[in-house]
C-alpha cells in the first residue's frame, strides 16, 4: 500500500512535465522522473483536477472565517500544502498530513533537505516529537497508521488539531485499502467529532464489469486489494454510506460527469490537444470507474462543490433492459494464436468465410501491431482458422489499426485508411485478393496490392476510425467513406463517393441536415443507402443519433431516424442490419450505469430495445469495444472477434477467444 503513493507521485510528476497540471513541487517530492503514456497523464490530470476543484471551493467558501484546517489522510508525497502556500491562500488555514510512519519520516527528511520546500514551511520547532515528524506554523506531518483510530486522534490533538473549527478531510485513494469496519469508523468519527466539516473522497467504483474485474485483478496482484468495493460498489452506495455515518449533505460524480460538468470547455479543449491521443475508450472507461465525493455537515453556507449543470443531471442512470443474450466461446476458434487483438477489422467474404486484418495484439508471442491476415471458416458446422502469409513488404500493410475492409466480391476486398501511431499521417488503400478456393483450410495465399489512387480520392484514404460502406446510385455500385479522424483533425464530418472498381471520386448531390462530425461510429448498407449510428463527436462526447443516407432520383438525402426510448449515446460499437432491424453490438457509453450489450432498433417504428449480454459461461472478462463482429443470418448468431485494450495502468486486456452471441430469441420475438 505504501508503494502506491510513490508510483502515483511519479505519474503526477510526468503529467505536470507535459503541461497537464501546473505544479513545480511534484518534481521535488517525487524524486525520480519517468515519462508516462498520454492515457496515464489524462487519468492523473482528472484526479488532480477533482481534488483541486473541491479544495479551492472549500477555501473560497471559508475565506471570511478566522481559522480553518485541512486534514489529508494517507497524503503520501502529495504537494498540496506547498502549492496552496505558494499561491498565498493559507492565511488562516493549517494543513495536517497523515501517513504511515515510514512514509512520513521519508517525506520529512526530504522537505528538510530541499531548500525550496523547507523555505516555504518556515521556522520549524516541534519535529521529531513521537509521531509528529515535521511541524511548521501551518503544516504538520504525522506518522500514524490510519486504521488505529485512537492513536490517530491522540496524535492529531497533540499536533494542535482543533475540533471546533471548519475542517476539510481529504482521502485520495486511501480508505479503500483499509478494512471496511475501520474505514467506516474513520468516516463516522470525522462526522461525530467535528461539528463543521467537509469530506473529500476520490476512489474506485464499479468492480463487476469487465474493466472493473481487470482493475481489481491488478490491485490484487499488487497485494493492495480494493476492500471498499464489495460493500460500496458504486456512487449511490458511497453516498448512502456517508449519509448513514452522520454526514448531512453528500454529492458524488464519476469522472466522466466531473469532466463534462465541472471543467470549463476551453480547459477541456486544452487538455485534449496536449498530446497525440487515440485511446478514447480506455479514457472514458477509466473515468467511469473512479468517482469524487463531497460530503459535509454544519457548514454555512452549505458546501456543494459538485453541483452538475442541469444539462447532464442523471448522467448515469440504468439503461432499460428488455432481456439478455447468451455468450459462449466459439469452440473451433479457441486457442487460435493471433485472434487476440483490438482495432482490427473482420468481414464476411463468402457465406462461411471471414477475413480478419490488422489491429494491435499478439503476434509471435509479443504485443505489437498485427501484420498477418487470418481466414476463419466454418465447415460442417465447425469453425477453424488459419493465418495466411502475405508476400508483401512491411510498409504496404504497415500493421494498421482502425482501418476499414470492404468486400467487393468473393475474391476481392478493399482496405481503406487506418493508422500506425496517432501522430502518423494515415495510410492509403490496399487491395486484398483471395484465391477462388479461399477458405480456412489454408490453401492459397492472400495477395496484398497497393492501390494507385487519383489525387482526388486520396483525401478519402487519409483517415482512421471512419466507415466505408457500399451504396447504390442509379444501379451503379459505390463506396461511401464517411467521418473518422486524422493526425490533423480530431474529428471529420466529410464524405466521399468512390466508384467501384476504379475508385475514382464521384460528385453526387447530397441534401438534408448534415450529421455532426464523428468517428468510431457504425455504418451499415441498407436499401441502397447507409445507416450511421452513434460515434464520438467533436468534444469527445458520445453521440446518440441515427441517420439514414437515402437514395433519391438525383442523389442522396440525410434523414434522421427517431428512436424511442432515445438511443443511449455510444461509440466503438459494431453494427449489422437484419430484416429491418439495426443491431448495435457493445461499444462504450457513459450515460448509463451498465455496460452496452446488444441494442435492437426497429427501423420501421423506431422502437429501441437494450439487451444485456449474459457472460456466465465465459471464464474471463468480455470487453466489447475495439472488437469486430460478423452476423451469421442463417444461425441468427454474431461472431465477435477480439476486442479490449489498454486498461489504464492496470495492464492490457485482450479478449482471449472469439465469442458467439445467440440472437435467435430476441430476433424472433420482435
From TrEMBL:
Interacts with RNF144B/IBRDC2. Its EC number is 2.1.1.290, 2.3.1.231. It comes from Setophaga kirtlandii (Kirtland's warbler). This is tRNA wybutosine-synthesizing protein 4. It catalyses: 7-[(3S)-3-amino-3-carboxypropyl]wyosine(37) in tRNA(Phe) + S-adenosyl-L-methionine = 7-[(3S)-(3-amino-3-methoxycarbonyl)propyl]wyosine(37) in tRNA(Phe) + S-adenosyl-L-homocysteine; 7-[(3S)-(3-amino-3-methoxycarbonyl)propyl]wyosine(37) in tRNA(Phe) + S-adenosyl-L-methionine + CO2 = wybutosine(37) in tRNA(Phe) + S-adenosyl-L-homocysteine + 2 H(+). Belongs to the methyltransferase superfamily. LCMT family. It comes from the Eukaryota. One of its GO terms (molecular function) is tRNA methyltransferase activity. Pathway: tRNA modification; wybutosine-tRNA(Phe) biosynthesis. Gene3D superfamilies: Kelch-type beta propeller, Vaccinia Virus protein VP39. The gene is Lcmt2. GO terms for biological process: tRNA methylation; wybutosine biosynthetic process. InterPro entries: Gal_Oxase/kelch_b-propeller, Kelch-typ_b-propeller, Ppm1/Ppm2/Tcmp, SAM-dependent_MTases_sf. Probable S-adenosyl-L-methionine-dependent methyltransferase that acts as a component of the wybutosine biosynthesis pathway. Wybutosine is a hyper modified guanosine with a tricyclic base found at the 3'-position adjacent to the anticodon of eukaryotic phenylalanine tRNA. May methylate the carboxyl group of leucine residues to form alpha-leucine ester residues. Keywords: Methyltransferase, S-adenosyl-L-methionine, Transferase, tRNA processing.
